[in-house]
Write a structure and sequence with these properties.
Blueprint: H1 3-17, E1 22-28, E2 34-39, H2 44-50, E3 52-55, E4 69-74, E5 80-81, E6 90-98, H3 109-122, E7 126-138, H4 164-177, E8 182-187, E9 193-198, E10 201-202, H5 203-223, E11 227-229, E12 243-251, E13 254-255, H6 268-279, H7 281-288, H8 294-297, E14 307-311, E15 317-320, E16 334-336, H9 345-361, H10 379-384, E17 388-389, H11 394-402, H12 405-411, H13 413-431, H14 436-444, H15 446-454, H16 463-470
Parallel strand pairs: 1-6, 14-15
Antiparallel strand pairs: 1-2, 3-4, 4-6, 5-6, 7-9, 7-10, 7-11, 7-12, 8-9, 12-13, 12-16, 14-17, 15-16
Length: 471
């Protein structure tokens, strides 16, 4: 019996012994939206053997109507009970999406990451990730009203009035019940902003864990009548939410990023990986920061990375190398600071890994470390150091992505083309939207307001031409 067959047998026995009533099959669309349908225990054995048919044309980025039927194959290794459904035991499993002939579906984000991880494995590397997840709690989820923070506290604050502490505690306990370990948690810098850092694991498991994490945070908040959001920048004038991701490659049990003889403790592999992230940073930003709103976070003045550079203890740089604890060579890692929690983690980890591997394979040179505060440097000083900027808008990021062979290869043709079409559509919809900011400016800008008042439609064909004629 293979390891997978033993795991499937374990799942079947657990479902029977625990009286599980439903098994939810989870997967994501191309944008990272969690999708699900439920089966009964009677269908579970067949699901393992043959997969469950569903309409792929109903899922964004999947199949067309004329090629709609697809199969969801549950991954027994991802089986967990849902702790918030104690009345009727319910379990979940993530699925791989396949075509009816059993071949992997190219539009499945989980398959995209699995393919990139396998590429790294062929080169002797295992890819690990550990994200710092930031998010906000608000008093109401009513989209018709401005978001109302639960507190006005800041970084590491803890007072008797910190009503979110209990929710964070409940969230962590729920995550651990589902086999997702947490490193630590704290109040973040902005009002009602919080952070929970997940303990690193292999990238595919971590992408599953990130999707589970988002749902758990929202479920726990909903139980208390609170709205949790992973929107990158929900409030004006304060820091947004990032998903700073710690990355490492291992060769067996050995951290391939560590070199005790190097002044920075970094191996040639690590330096190539960092160089790859820097060279391809602009190309992959549309994936790591996929919303229009993502670029309200990536601006100067709010501690988010803007400039493409690397450093050790310098959080103004895009790539940071955290100091390893003494005697902890295995903890050597790099921190990529631009992703935000609205990204699709399967696709984000895929392009990050592809960029890093390109730097290793092509032997990219690592530029000098920049220790100065990049925000305080002038544009001329940054240019002299060869420092570029991340895209300033979703439009710019899409333009960079569509010319990237690296991203096209990492994502595959199906996902690459669909993602660009979808994001162009999002940008076009945003461009024609009249925002409250514009309406507010029209009220207090005398010249603009008076111009509007002076130009009634009826005057355009009479007064103005006549005036021009008299002149």
């Amino acid at each position: 019996m293979s390891a997978m067959e033993r795991q499937q047998d374990y799942v079947l026995r657990t479902v029977e012994e625990r009286g599980v009533r439903f098994i939810r099959l989870w997967f994501t669309d191309v944008l990272g939206q969690l999708k699900s349908f439920a089966i009964t225990p009677a269908e579970l054995e067949n699901a393992f053997a043959e997969g469950m048919t569903f309409d792929g044309s109903a899922v964004d980025g999947f199949s067309r109507v004329q090629q709609s039927d697809m199969l969801a194959l549950p991954d027994a290794n991802s089986f967990e009970l849902l702790p918030w459904r104690d009345d009727q035991p319910v379990a979940r499993m993530f699925c791989d999406i396949v075509n009816l002939d059993g071949s992997a579906f190219e539009g499945d984000p989980r398959h995209v990451l699995r393919r990139n991880v396998e590429r790294a494995r062929e080169r002797g590397f295992s890819f690990y990730a550990g994200p710092d997840m930031e998010y906000f709690y608000f008093a109401s989820s009513d989209g018709s009203k401005p978001p109302v923070p639960l507190d006005r506290f800041s970084y590491f604050d803890l007072t008797a009035a910190d009503v979110a502490s209990d929710m964070r505690k409940r969230t962590i306990l729920t995550l651990e019940q589902m086999g997702i370990p947490v490193r630590y948690t704290h109040h973040e810098d902005s009002p009602s902003q919080h952070e929970i850092d997940l303990r690193y694991t292999d990238a595919l498991t971590m992408a599953d864990d990130v999707m589970t994490f988002k749902l758990v945070v929202k479920e726990v908040a909903l139980e208390r009548g609170v709205h949790a959001t992973f929107m990158p920048k929900p409030l004006t004038g304060v820091q947004g939410s990032g998903m700073h991701t710690h990355l490492s490659l291992f060769e067996g049990d050995v951290n391939a990023f560590h070199d005790p003889g190097d002044e920075f403790g970094l191996s040639k592999v690590a330096k190539g990986f960092i160089a790859g992230l820097l060279v391809h940073a602009r190309e992959i930003t549309a994936i790591t920061n996929q919303w229009v709103n993502s670029y309200k976070r990536l601006v100067v003045g709010f501690e988010a990375p803007v400039y493409v550079a690397w450093a050790r203890n310098n959080r103004s740089a895009l790539v940071r190398v955290p100091g390893a604890k003494r005697g902890k060579a295995a903890s050597t890692r790099v921190e990529f600071r631009s992703p935000d929690p609205a990204c699709n983690p399967y696709l984000a980890f895929s392009v990050i890994l592809a960029a890093g591997l390109a730097g290793i394979e092509e032997g990219y040179d690592l530029p000098p470390e920049l220790t100065a505060n990049l925000y305080d440097m002038t544009a001329e000083e940054r240019a002299a150091e060869g420092v570029t900027e991340l895209p300033g808008s979703l439009e710019e990021a899409i333009h960079e992505m569509e010319h990237s062979e690296l991203v096209a290869e990492a994502l595959g043709e199906h996902v690459f083309e669909w993602f660009i079409r979808n994001k162009r559509s999002e940008w076009d919809a945003y461009r024609v939207e009249v925002t409250p900011f514009e309406l507010e400016r029209s009220r207090w800008n005398p010249s603009f307001s008076s111009l509007i008042r002076r130009r009634p439609r009826s005057s355009r064909s009479s007064t103005w031409p006549a005036t021009r004629g008299r002149r």
